[in-house]
Design a protein that fits this description.
By secondary structure, the protein is of the alpha+beta class. It contains 7 helices and 11 strands.
Length: about 400
């Protein structure tokens, strides 16, 4: 009895977990709620778009400043090169003056210090000779002092100039590094905004288009838009209309879910580092055919903001719609409105768009941001379901399966 109760509780918990994404935006499920959501969403996206424009302007200014710094650094390098030539010339001059002073002192035999000067001065034969000798000693002393002072000043000047240029060079390099880091930070911020595929303007247009669409198919202000969509699709499916080419035709009920490839393995799981889907690979990627995970109708196909080929299929199961998304395809073989089954080849594995290598990115969601999908991009991200809850993939990564 206890086991039955435990199993019942687990089933209840699992059921509530699976249904959570559908209820996460229940307040927006009516046309009135969705309209209010779109207005707020459009405002937020416009702010992001303005931020991207501001970031781009800041990056342009930083790039200009970095270019100026690079020119300044080139000038500093030239100055340092010129200074080095001057230093080399000064060293040669120092060497020459040292030799000159030495030779003069040797000439007068006064190389032994101050005592030699005195001996020379006091060795005069008369007062006139002594005055002359004192004058010579004074001149030699002054000359040597002057030469030594000049040499010391020249050495100090060269050293100071070299230190100044080196310091300036280090400061410019530091500033360049800081600007490069700031540029990378701003670019990362911009990329984070742009990475929210589809593009910001595309999201704004799609959100507005969805409001207009649900108004056009006659949804009441307080009517659940998903119920309205199914009601509309049922009416137009019976009349043979495709509902304007957006895949608005109720497909046969999905009779089970299948792997989208005959052979392959999982390379990345759902919600791994925010990953909205599951990635599937196969070494022989050039010949890998992609199939729908269940019976459905082709809902949308397009190139996303990064250039990836994307195909979306709408499935009808349990009285509601589910959507499956197939991204990075190298080719697709179906059109919007086509009814497909698990045996229909819809495309081939590829590496289009933002992809590090050939693989299939598969998502399962309870709504879609495209026209008639019933949600904004933000809601779409919160509506994703773990494909493993529907499809029997092997438990680990890179574990092969050999049948669908």
């Amino acid at each position: 009895m206890k086991k039955i109760i435990v199993i019942a509780v687990l089933i209840a918990i699992l059921a509530s977990y699976i249904s959570l994404p559908m209820d996460a935006y229940a307040d927006s499920n009516t046309l009135a709620g969705f309209r209010a959501e779109v207005e707020q969403y459009t405002k937020e996206l416009q702010e992001k778009q303005d931020k991207v424009a501001k970031n781009d302007q800041e990056v342009a200014e930083i790039k200009k400043r970095i270019s100026e710094i690079e020119s300044e650094l080139d000038s500093i390098v030239d100055e340092i090169g010129t200074l080095q030539i001057e230093i080399d010339q000064s060293n040669q001059e120092i060497k020459e003056k040292s030799e000159q002073s030495k030779k003069i002192i040797e000439y007068y035999q006064l190389a032994n210090g101050e005592n030699a000067y005195l001996e020379y001065a006091f060795g005069a034969t008369d007062i006139t000779d002594m005055i002359y000798r004192m004058s010579v000693v004074e001149q030699l002393t002054e000359y040597n002092d002057k030469v030594m002072n000049e040499l010391e000043e020249l050495i100090a000047k060269n050293k100071k100039q070299q230190e100044t240029l080196t310091e300036k060079q280090e400061q410019q390099k530091k500033l360049q590094t800081e600007l490069e880091q700031e540029k990378e930070r701003i670019n990362a911020d911009t990329q984070a905004l742009k990475d929210a595929m589809p593009g910001i303007q595309e999201q704004i247009d799609s959100a507005k288009e969805n409001v207009e669409y649900y108004e056009s198919i006659g949804c009441g202000e307080n009517e659940n838009i998903f119920s309205c969509q199914i009601r509309y699709d049922q009416a137009h499916s019976n009349s043979g209309s495709s509902g304007g080419g957006a895949g608005n035709i109720i497909p046969p009920s999905a009779d089970g879910f299948y792997r989208p490839m005959a052979t392959g393995y999982v390379t990345q799981n759902w919600m791994n580092y925010g990953h909205l889907g599951i990635d599937l690979g196969n070494r022989n990627y050039t010949n890998i055919e992609i199939y729908p995970i269940a019976t459905g109708v082709v809902f949308a196909k397009y190139y996303d903001n990064a250039g990836a080929l994307v195909l979306k299929i709408r499935h009808y199961t349990g009285g509601r719609y589910l959507y499956s998304t197939y991204a990075h395809l190298s080719a697709w073989y179906v059109n919007v409105g086509d009814i497909v089954t698990p045996d229909t080849v819809i495309g081939r594995m590829g590496s289009t768009g933002n992809s590090s290598g050939p693989h299939l990115h598969l998502e399962i969601t309870t709504c879609d941001w495209n026209k008639g999908g019933g949600c904004t991009w933000a809601q779409y991200q919160n509506s994703t379901l773990n494909p493993r809850n529907y499809i029997g993939f092997p438990g680990g990564l890179y574990t092969w399966w050999y049948s669908r």
